[in-house]
Specification:
Number of helices: 19
Distance between the termini: 53 Å
Shape: globular
Strand content: 15-25%
Low-confidence stretches: 394-402
Helix content: 25-40%
Bound molecules: beta-D-glucopyranose
CATH architecture of one domain: 3-Layer(aba) Sandwich
Largest sheet: 6 strands, mixed
Oligomer: single chain
CATH class of one domain: Alpha Beta
């Protein structure tokens, strides 16, 4: 099969079969949307479906594929798709956690393993990466994404697409990636799932779109519009963005797949009923209708009859779907991704496990560490593990069955062989546990240290899991207060799918707090590594952690106000009752060693359009333990025709330093990075002074500042 063969096929297909190619139905082995009936073999044989989601496993996939290849009139293979955001068998930390590693090579490596595991179980395409910028931790889908910053989103997008797809989509270990959810979904009203989105064109173009552009530049095969409307236009029919920007301006010729029933849901958006909805979506460039409730199946033939769509537009969509199948190598061998997972896993398991351990270690963020309480002393005689997450395994509970090694208690026991370990939940996750508190208190009182394991279950974040109060449920707060009241040292281990509000009393009362996210298959081992000091934590927050729910949305790249907060000035930008600052800033994350940054400098302090300077800074490990430091490079355009954010992230890098070691970190900074979107949203370089701010987080107090001038261009 080649391009000419595809054209011939298009000519041979009936309208019904064409619409079938544009239809994606569920195998229903995995549930990721409202319940529905699983696809039937008759539907496959009749050519009523072109791709499936949520069916996994070589035998099942082989069986379904056989109906398409041997049982349907033209024998066109199906492709099989699944949400695999942080692993299939080997689970990695949730994406928000993994983004805290600030490590593109790691992001790519974990996507590669996920792809290999998918590809041997019949999966051709994943609905990942999710690259929605999120600045509101109430929104549960913060779990799935890269956090608050567009540059991080772009780097995640590129790394993940390369990891899933490799350079050759036809490779039997490559799978197609999907950039989702295009675009602005992270800004749903008040953080409430599926609510509408209203945002300025500027915010959209500066913050929410760049990760998608990066995914397309990396060659992503597929794009998924978000469920939501953007400024009144549902994304599934957004002609200016889908056709105008994505297809025409960015040149994306891959497949656009709707989100689950989103074309049918245009009715509930109050925009269009079936035939009109189908026409609007197809004309906007949406090729595949996922779980469409008949939107394309019934809507497109009627729309064609009524002249709302043309056969040429239908063919265009069918062509893109068939070309994807061609690129995936499915015409050549429709069973190419149906392997023997057991055999493949057995050989690859040790390396995958090691990668999961590394990813979990690098994602853990040490939020506080009073009096250098961590790492824990090996001479401890007793450790109490308390809290509803004390006996968790992996923290993730996603189907299909995930491989596990050991639970947290076993890992702690192995890391501290001299200590007696006691375990008591003390509380359930959301409700008190009858009689639980007394046992927990007794354990805490009798132990040298308590590991207080708190947070939210993995299903308390993710899709359809907004929380109005993104903090610890009341029952866990009561438990924490009681344990702190014992006066014994308490280390808080926080599991979450989002930034959590850490109350003042907990931040002040705990000796140390670790953000663990949901750390995946090797999470427990990684936690033990960090507690014992076998691993020196290096994770950094990719999303600001609010001090209070009233600060939300909160992010570092705010634009300046004409009345910045002044302590003694009433008429300044502040709250009367809480601070402006987040509890933990973007980039925050401690280490068991200390780093000193000195001598920030630029190789050229003045540049013109087209030129690049280098920003250098010396980083010294002043402690006694080896450690990895993350250095961020921000800019601030001091005077521009449009007010620019107080900080804009331009680069980040990591440096590993032995005790006493110094290294110079170098960043290239080009005039292109100093451009911003002008009044017409086109990139614009304005001469003038730019502050370059270098340091370990977006906390202004920690940043070192130098200046670079942009010379007026001679033309
Ligand atoms: C989600 C998508 C997902 C799809 C298929 C939808 O509910 O919004 O992110 O890819 O289901 O599972």
């Amino acid at each position: 099969m080649d391009h000419r063969g595809i054209e011939k096929l298009i000519g041979d297909l009936t309208l019904k079969e064409k619409v079938g190619q544009l239809t994606m139905l569920s195998g229903e082995l995995v549930q990721t949307g409202p319940a529905s009936a699983p696809v039937t073999s008759a539907a496959i044989q009749n050519g009523e479906v072109g791709s499936l989601l949520n069916l996994v496993g070589s035998e099942r996939v082989r069986d379904a594929q056989r109906h398409a290849v041997e049982g349907s009139r033209l024998g066109i293979p199906l492709f099989f798709s699944l949400d695999v955001l942080y692993g299939l068998r080997t689970m990695f930390p949730i994406p928000l956690g993994e983004s805290s590693a600030f490590d593109p090579a790691l992001w790519e490596a974990t996507a590669r393993v996920a792809a290999e595991e998918c590809a041997v179980e019949g999966i051709d395409l994943t609905f990942a990466p999710m690259i929605d910028i999120a600045r509101d931790p109430r929104w549960g889908r913060t779990l799935e994404g890269p956090g608050e910053d567009p540059l991080v989103g772009q780097r995640v997008a590129g790394a993940k697409v390369r990891g899933y797809q490799t350079a050759d989509l036809a490779s039997p270990t490559a799978i197609a990636a999907t950039a989702k959810h295009f675009a602005g979904y992270g800004a749903v009203l008040a953080g409430r799932e599926y609510a509408s989105v209203d945002m300025s064109e500027r915010l959209l173009h500066e913050v929410y779109l760049p990760p998608f552009k990066a995914a397309i530049e990396a060659g992503v095969a597929c794009l998924m519009p978000a469920f939501v409307d953007l400024n009144g236009t549902p994304m599934s029919i957004h002609v200016p963005l889908l056709r105008g920007l994505v297809r025409e301006r960015w040149g994306f010729d891959g497949v656009i797949v709707s989100d689950w029933s989103s074309i049918a849901e245009l009715l509930l958006h109050g925009v269009a009923a079936k035939p009109e909805a189908a026409a609007l979506a197809l004309n906007a460039g949406v090729d595949i209708d996922m779980m469409g409730k008949g939107a394309y199946v019934e809507g497109l033939p009627e729309a064609l009859d009524r002249g709302l769509v043309t056969m040429a537009t239908i063919d265009e969509a069918v062509r893109r779907v068939l070309l994807l199948k061609l690129k995936l190598g499915l015409f050549h061998d429709p069973y190419r991704r149906c392997g023997s997972p057991e055999a493949a896993a057995a050989t690859a398991r040790p390396a995958r496990r090691a990668l999961a351990r590394e990813a979990a270690r690098k994602s853990i963020v040490l939020l506080t560490n009073t009096e250098d309480t961590l790492p824990l002393d090996q001479s401890l005689k007793s450790i109490a593990i308390i809290g509803p997450f004390g006996d968790i395994v992996g923290g993730n509970s996603e189907p299909p069955p995930v491989e596990r090694v050991a639970n947290l208690v076993d890992r702690i026991r192995a890391a501290f062989p001299k200590a007696t370990i006691s375990v008591a939940a003390g509380s359930n996750v959301e409700q008190p546990k009858e009689g639980g508190l007394a046992a927990a208190l007794q354990n805490a009182e009798q132990s040298d240290v308590t590991l207080l394991c708190l947070g939210e279950r993995v299903d308390m974040a993710g899709e359809a899991s907004s929380r109005a109060y993104p903090g610890l449920p009341h029952a866990q707060q009561e438990l924490a207060q009681a344990i702190l009241d014992t006066g014994k040292p308490v280390i808080v281990l926080l599991f979450s799918g989002r930034p959590l509000i850490v109350p003042d009393w907990l931040a002040a009362g705990a000796k140390a707090i670790l953000a663990l996210w949901h750390p995946g298959s090797e999470g427990e081992g990684a936690i033990a590594d960090v507690l014992s000091g076998a691993h020196n934590p290096s994770g950094r927050l990719s999303m600001s952690w609010p001090a209070d729910v009233g600060q939300i949305p909160i992010f570092f790249a705010e634009r300046p106000t004409g009345r910045p907060r002044l302590e003694n000035e009433h008429f300044s930008s502040k709250y009367l009752d809480i601070p402006n600052e987040p509890r933990f800033a973007f980039g925050h994350g401690l280490s068991y060693t200390r780093f000193l940054l000195t001598n920030p400098r630029a190789t050229k302090s003045t540049i013109a359009a087209g030129e690049t300077t280098e920003i250098l800074i010396d980083v010294k490990n002043t402690g006694v333990m080896a450690g990895e430091h993350t250095v961020f490079l921000f800019i601030r355009d001091l005077a521009s025709s449009i007010s620019r954010p107080l900080l804009e992230l331009e680069d980040f890098t990591k440096v590993m330093l032995g005790p006493g070691e110094t290294r110079t970190v170098r960043f290239a900074l080009s005039s292109d990075q100093l451009r911003f979107l002008g009044p017409d949203l086109e990139p614009l370089l304005e001469p003038g002074t730019f502050e370059i701010l270098v340091g370990p987080s977006a906390n202004p107090a920690q940043l070192q500042i130098l200046e670079v001038q942009v010379r007026p261009s001679s033309r």
